[in-house]
């Protein structure tokens, strides 16, 4: 017996060591995936799909303007620690390539809009319903449609593709699928959980999409016309049959000329546009002026490029969409 005990002790120690390794390994595996999302709407989609398996940081937060965002050293630090980065794409985050390079980010990048059919911004003089006011007249967007990350002086350039694809819930479904695939690739251990959460979330998005279509179909087509602060609702208009007239082109803080404002006012009167809306990231002054001079009613705030702060009506992607549909439908009713 005496000769057997040491080997048995060794075996027990080996088993104990293996158990400890398994426990430590499980603890390590249980650490949430470190993810960064570029802006609040995309961040909410990542949160829905990722659940407790993801530790999420969002760079441009609620009520933030991702068009004109200026990254901070803190953003570079957050990105350097991330394992996966979620971006909208379609030249929306023109400031992001420099930040990614500066941070030394070495993880996976997931483009949420991958697979979306991009909508083109209308051209001046074109025949599109939104063609009267496009991004060519803006003081901070040049004419060569630079697809890079800006020119180093704080100016940001957008290409011809409209980046606001999340404004159609059918595209929101594409975003959710891409997020699920990106999380599964970065964290295969939780792939099934990501896909299950995405499937449940997508079912809710599709139900809301069907409801929105039904809501606007019940409103006479000649009343489905709205003035908004900037050109962020083209995908919404295409999906739900609403004509949007943007007062300020692509960037929410671009200043239209007096002649351009006069043209909008003339169009609102001519087309009998029933309502004008401000956005949560824009100054209300211009929209209020258009309302005063045309008699169109000012609707509530719309959420375009950013969610609201928690506790306000548009704190999640779905709440934002439900709110926008309700506000628009109420203003367009006779």
Number of helices: 10
Strand content: 5-15%
Q: Largest beta sheet, briefly?
A: 4 strands, parallel
Structural class: alpha/beta
What portion of residues is helical?
40-55%
Morphology: elongated
Strand order in the largest sheet: 2-1-3-4
Could you state the order of secondary-structure elements as H and E?
HEHEHEHEEEHHEHEHEHEH
Q: Any overview of this molecule?
A:
- 43% of the residues lie in helices and 11% in strands.
- By secondary structure, the protein is α/β, with parallel strands linked by helices.
- The chain has a four-stranded parallel beta sheet, with helices on both faces. A four-stranded parallel beta sheet has the order 8-7-9-10.
- Strand 9 (275-276), helix 9 (285-294) and strand 10 (297-298) form a beta-alpha-beta unit.
- Helix 2 (40-50) packs across helix 5 (169-186), helix 5 (169-186) runs antiparallel to helix 6 (191-217) and helix 8 (258-270) crosses helix 9 (285-294).
- The protein is elongated.
- Mean pLDDT is 84; it is low at 1-5, 23-27 and 123-157.
What attributes characterize this protein structure?
single chain; 334 residues; alpha/beta; four-stranded parallel sheet; 10 helices; 10 strands; disordered N terminus
What's the short version?
This protein is an alpha/beta fold and 334 residues long. It has helices at residues 5-30, 40-50, 73-80, 96-103, 169-186, 191-217, 234-240, 258-270, 285-294, 317-332; strands at 33-39, 54-60, 84-87, 108-111, 119-120, 161-162, 225-228, 243-246, 275-276, 297-298.
């Amino acid at each position: 017996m005496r000769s057997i005990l040491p080997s048995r002790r060794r075996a027990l120690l080996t088993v104990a060591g293996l158990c400890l390794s398994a426990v430590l390994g499980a603890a390590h595996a249980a650490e949430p995936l470190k993810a960064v999302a570029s802006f609040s709407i995309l961040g909410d989609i990542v949160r829905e799909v990722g659940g407790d398996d993801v530790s999420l940081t969002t760079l441009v937060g609620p009520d933030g303007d991702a068009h004109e965002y200026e990254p901070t050293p803190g953003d570079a630090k957050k990105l350097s620690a991330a394992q996966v980065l979620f971006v909208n794409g379609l030249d929306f985050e023109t400031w992001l390539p420099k930040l990614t390079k500066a941070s030394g980010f070495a993880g996976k990048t997931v483009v949420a809009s991958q697979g979306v059919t991009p909508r083109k911004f209308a051209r001046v003089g074109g025949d599109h319903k939104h063609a009267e006011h496009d991004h060519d007249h803006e003081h901070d967007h040049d004419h060569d449609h630079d697809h890079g990350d800006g020119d180093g002086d704080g100016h940001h350039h957008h290409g011809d593709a409209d980046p606001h694809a999340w404004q159609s819930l059918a595209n929101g479904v594409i975003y959710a699928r891409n997020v699920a695939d990106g999380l599964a690739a970065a964290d295969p251990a939780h792939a099934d959980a990501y896909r299950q959460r995405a499937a449940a979330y997508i079912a809710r998005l599709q139900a809301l999409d069907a409801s929105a279509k039904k809501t606007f179909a019940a409103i006479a087509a000649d009343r489905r016309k709205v003035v908004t602060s900037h050109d962020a609702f083209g995908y919404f208009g295409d999906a739900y049959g609403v004509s949007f007239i943007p007062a300020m082109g692509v960037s929410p803080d671009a200043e239209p000329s007096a002649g351009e404002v006069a043209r909008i006012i003339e169009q609102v009167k001519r087309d009998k546009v029933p309502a004008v809306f401000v956005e949560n990231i824009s100054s209300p002054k211009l929209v209020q002026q258009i309302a005063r001079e045309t008699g169109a009613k000012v609707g509530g705030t719309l959420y375009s490029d950013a969610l609201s702060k928690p506790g306000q009506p548009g704190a999640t992607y779905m709440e934002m969409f439900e709110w926008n549909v309700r506000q628009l439908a109420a203003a367009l009713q006779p």
